[in-house]
Amino acid sequence: MTKKNPVIMIVEDENLLLQAISKKLQLNNFETITCISGHQAIDYLENLDSLVELPDFIWLDYYLKDMNGLTFMSKIKNNPKWEEIPVIVISNSASPDKVESMMALGAKQYLIKAEHRLDEIITTIRDFLKEV
Amino acid sequence: MIQNLELYKRALDCASNHIIITDLKGIIQYANTAASHVTGYSTQEIIGSTPKLWGGLMDQSFYDDMWKHISQKEMYRGEIRNRRKSGEIYYAEITVSPVFDETGTHVGYIGMEEDISHRKDLESKLRHERDRLSTVVSAMAEGLVVTDLEGNVTFINLIAQKLLGITEKGADGKNIREVLPLYRYEKPIHKNEHPLEKLPEPGSICTLDFDSGYSVKTADKNFAVSLKATTFREKDHAGVVIVFNDATREKEIDQRKTDFISLASHQLRTPLSASKWYLEMLLTGDAGELSTEQKEFTRNIEFSNNRMISLVNSLLNISRIESGRILIEPQPSDVVQLIDELLVDFDREIREKSLEIVKEYSESKMIVESDPKLLTHIFLALLSNAIRYSDKNGSVKISVDDDPENVFISFADQGYGISSHDHDRIFEKFFRGENATKIVTDGSGLGLYLARLIAHELHGTISFDSTIDQGSTFTVSFPKKGLEYRKGEVSLDSKQSIY
Fold it and tell me: Predicted ipTM?
């Protein structure tokens, strides 16, 4: 059986960013699920036919138009089917309390968008996937 | 006997007080020279008349009271208003005593007047001055509290009473620390921070400003405060004058400004992130290989974009510090290590300019109890300036030294220097030295401003010495210990160089 490419769910409400991330991830042999809102991502997960189709990783922006990262993260971590999916938060808003609460909820890392190249973030994700 | 009498009479004449002797009806039998001098009437005019000649200006009750006393053979003492022959009013302290002859028979009265017009005049001026001062102090828009050197309240004006929710009586004798409980960022201030602990020398002022997070909290009052304390020391009088005002409104305006910058900065970063990532993809060939020139142009765009990101970061950092929401985490930090790590980050710039870095570290490790992130931001600003404002092949000397309490870190370059007429403004927000703007065109004027803001947060200072075309030395000093942890909503971003 050939190992399929890892699937990354991107939750990002800025369309241009969403496209850039998705494109870069695909070029790096990831499959992507693009979600422009928190609800779209939750709906997607809820409507999956089987757990096999769950994403391997979630790329989460903190400020979404319909909910913040904290709400989204709680929904993921409070659902036994989803709680194991690693989440990385990549936002332009990173106050210590946000970072702390997201890390406490189980985020793998909290990065500031404008500070990192996509390459760097992808390397970080790869490292986490290796651990899993 | 006769001789003695003559002597007594002369003595009375020599006395500076006005003295008269009357019979029981008040008819004057004798008046000394001073009586004539004070009243302006001649001795001949006085003798045979009554003191009404120059008196009678007081209410009848005054005279009734006097007569009541003296007719009961008691001495009377009081203050009286009289009129000289010239019509001029004068004030006198009078003493009237009954006179008895050798058989003990009451034969008359002796009256003495001391002219106290001068004293009265001074008293009235003093009273007037005091009334005026008290009116001014009451009408002051600021709260005013005066204490002794221990801080016990000796005076509190009306506004201060209102602001602190206390009455004059309630404050009297209480300590200022209790009457005016000072807070910083919602926490009672450290004992040592109280203006009374570091009493300013007379003539200098101790200032606590609302924008450094100071507020006053009593049982039912809570307001942002700006306060100034001065001491006074006179011969037998010393104390502290504290003037303060409710700065809630200023704080609100300040907060709105900070919120605006913070929001604007976040909003600015999102499109900057998009540009950053698309440029990255272009440059890594994700959209196909670029020609050499296309690559060069794209790199220039990337460079500008990164500069913009740094600028936004600086603005964000400034707004965070100014709003007092910055997290401070003191921990043992090695200053030498922090600087050496920064030098690695600047390796490319140092090599491009062929700069010589001279390290003069007094110790190979310099451990301080401070916030390493914030320290790095200060060193970053000073080091990047030293490098950016140096010519090729110059040298930058970095010194680390200490005394028992403080650490001193200097960055000395041999670069363009700062013109002396820019010295006063060099730490101002957005200010750039005149020659700096000509030689190094890209700069925001935020680096030194931010560095000094951070240094203040660490209880440190930054000073400099600079001569145009010869270079600048910036020295930051801060205490080795004593920095307190402060929970903050934000920390500073990025250790990228500040443009």
Answer: 0.88
